[in-house]
Design goal:
homodimer, 424 residues, alpha/beta, Aspartate Aminotransferase, domain 1, 8-stranded mixed beta sheet, 4-stranded antiparallel beta sheet, 15 helices, 44% helix, 14% strand, globular
């Protein structure tokens, strides 16, 4: 008989692979299914040409190539960190001084996911609390569970987390003697995954003010997940949450090139309040000793050669057509069904769909299998709700339009509408 | 006044950046110093040509390039996992059936460090014990501290961890009622960092037998760190610890292309006992969602095109000259000093030097600053001892011959001998 294996608490809290992987596996196994679930990016616009040009620039110069093939530093390649900071300042219309930020605060990671995990690791003990919009990015919710932390939901509207609801939740936690356990508020500020909403400028200031005012028993950070900022197809850019905090130093800003360039290259970053730099780097040093150096040199070359901005224009054109296809198909096939609603995102990769209250979208509900039979896969909304579960809705689902063609999106939404019609 | 920041216990346990980073930073800041400390690999033999050929093969085929630029899976790219397994089986002279292993057990990570961290995360709660040779790889000792686990030292000789000493330590822990907290024994089986020793075949069997026999209160794993296996300059290869375990399923095998190909590409792997696959992947899914896909495709191409083996020959020739230079200089400058000893490694990147008992090699001891003044940097041996400290020796130091030229190695060892002479 095999000996019992003593897995760690964290291993038990991790609780199997994230739902994204489960759904991705399901997608890969059934290629005939139209997956509006997987968070993959568009295959056709992956930057083969720009990547090749960037690699050629590096590898045609042996010294430069060797520098890329050697170990880097834990914090990451300085020219790339400088370029990232410069881009953010430019987008926010600020100087480094106005933004109260320096390149020392910019840390490179394996996608923004790793940054989120490192920050969680550095801040959260088991039982600590992170306030999250209900719904929120489910991978981060899984990360919090893995750390033994509690994700507590806050109501959102079409502009993201509602400041008044956030205050109410903080007051409730304070009344329960738990304000000291609240370490952070997590907000995807641009084209939220899954809700698609963007936090408007005025609400950003309110969030910073709330975080500061409630930091009575210890600092409460605002984790700004800006993964989708550059995937803007309509409307204007909004200055980052980072840019409106002044000298508060409460915002942890996370960004990535995974969505806007290539997830296979997997370079993300964080812009950290000064006191977090050392603990996050210590944690990263223990985990992987620095992200792959060659990938960082590549992204630096791509940015410096102007290839990134060119690519971004093509990418936006491609996704603009896809979001139009998604919303157009929803108008065509779903608008007529009572109780079906959605917000029209101006960017990102997701449309968050509300179905009639009576429809449970979960894997065990009536819709999911019906939808698969009709030929479409979605992410059941219930996975996107914080762990405390108080605000979980069973009648929501997430549609991703990243990987499918406009034609497939159209057929997929049509299939979904058929399934909904059958269940009603 | 700023609010107090509540860092996590893990952040406090991380305790600053690893010593490697501190020393690396010191190295970078003083280029005139001959660093025999940094674990960087040889700059001249970094595989510029092979990498470029591998990248060309991928990026000249748009479909293949797009597959590399898209998200991969958490476990990693199947053709690379297959190639890694095949190489190991070939080196061990076994079939997959004889080795009781399948490709499902092969997981790709960001260097072998990440694998070690993931395994630690999946197995270790605060207070759990990992038995480690005294000395051991200091980055892994830092990882254990970061997890709140205890590293307990076991005496080594010129063949690595001494089985009898391991038994004694296990008996001591059992007597203290702590056998149930022992989760693993960590062994660098080839050309250990820092000691340079290789565990001979017969001792490998003994280690497996001990791990099995002492798994009375729960499974005790053997973590086999094989990072340096392919950096063999003299003598014969030895079948892996993994290969001698039969159906025990106690060995966690860690490997990497960082030392044998490029640390900037940063692809490592683990071969895991079946029950560990799911928890390790769950943890990896939470941390980074899979290592960069393009790097995995690149390494698969490099292996498949035969470029890796060609490179390995060149690399071994280069390092053979360097280890000869190191040992030759030691013979020339250090052999005459009473109380100075070293083992002659047959591979790897390190020579572990014993100085007279009276010499403290630490940063605050008399030798370190004298050595820097003379123009050479080394790693003080005290950083390489497990956290319990019972076996820590103050008169040891590690020399790395990876980055320096033969001529610099010669001058560096000569400078060290001058410093030792002055201190005596």
């Amino acid at each position: 008989m095999p000996e019992p294996v003593g897995f760690s608490r964290r291993a038990r809290w991790a609780g199997g692979e994230p739902i994204a992987n489960l759904l991705m596996a399901r997608t890969l196994a059934q290629p005939e299914l139209i997956s509006l679930a997987a968070g993959f990016v568009d295959y056709e616009t992956l930057p083969v040409g720009p990547t090749r040009q960037g690699l050629d620039a590096i590898f045609s110069d042996p010294d430069r190539a060797r520098a890329a093939l050697q170990y880097g530093t834990t914090i990451g390649y300085l020219p790339l960190r400088e370029a990232i900071l410069e881009r953010m300042l430019h987008a926010d219309g600020q100087t480094a001084r106005e933004a109260n930020v320096s390149v020392k605060q910019v840390v490179l990671t394996a996608g923004s996911n790793q940054l989120l995990h490192l920050v969680g690791d550095a801040l959260l003990d088991p039982g600590d609390v992170v306030l999250c919009g209900a719904p929120s990015y489910f991978v981060f919710l899984g990360t919090l569970a893995n750390l033994g932390a509690r994700s507590v939901g806050v109501e959102i509207d079409e502009h993201g987390v509602i400041p008044e609801a956030l205050e109410e939740e903080l007051a409730r936690l304070e009344a329960a003697g738990e304000l000291g356990r609240v370490k952070a508020i997590y907000v995807t500020t641009y084209y939220d995954n899954p809700s698609g909403v963007t936090v408007p400028a005025e609400r950003r200031g309110a969030l910073v003010e709330i975080a500061r005012r409630w930091s009575r028993h210890g600092k409460i950070y605002l984790i700004e997940d800006a993964a989708y900022r550059e995937l803007r197809y309509y409307g204007d850019d909004v200055p980052s949450l980072r840019s409106v905090e002044g000298e508060a130093d409460v915002v942890i800003h996370a960004g990535t090139f995974s969505k806007s360039f290539s997830p296979g290259i997997r370079v993300g970053w964080g812009i950290l309040p000064p006191e977090l730099i050392e603990p996050v780097l210590a944690q990263k040093g223990n985990i992987d000793f620095g992200s792959p150096n060659v990938n960082q040199h590549l992204m630096a070359a791509v940015l410096q050669m102007g290839l990134y901005d060119e690519h971004l224009e093509r990418l936006r054109d491609g996704y603009r057509a896809k979001i139009d296809a998604t919303l157009g198909a929803a108008d065509e096939f779903l608008a007529g069904i009572d109780g079906v609603h959605w917000v029209r995102p101006e960017g990102g990769l997701y449309v968050w769909l509300q179905l009639p209250d009576s429809i449970d979208t979960g894997l065990c509900g009536p819709l999911f299998d019906r939808a698969v039979e009709e030929g479409v896969l979605y992410v059941p909304g219930e996975y996107c709700y914080p762990g405390d579960g108080r605000l979980t809705k069973k009648n929501m689902l997430r549609l991703s339009f990243g990987i499918q063609s406009c034609e497939s999106i159209h057929r997929g939404v049509e299939a979904l509408a058929r399934a909904v019609g059958q269940v009603l």
